[in-house]
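Study the following:
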Amino acid sequence: MAAIKTKIELQYADKSISSDDLVERAKAAYEAEYGVKGAKNLELYVKPEENKAYYVVNNKMTGSIDL
């Protein structure tokens, strides 16, 4: 069975942001904050009502980015 290609776009209020953009921005924030590259896993929790996305990298390093 062939893999399905997906695109996820979060739209709310007057904003629109893709899941790819959220991942890239979270990775950049994580690398800048912790000075480490090469995350093995990344979990993102998007909270539009707070205008934030919270991340957990490698099951231990946390932070947030603005939407």
Observations:
- The CA atoms of residues 6 and 19 lie 10 Å apart.
- Helices lie at 19-34.
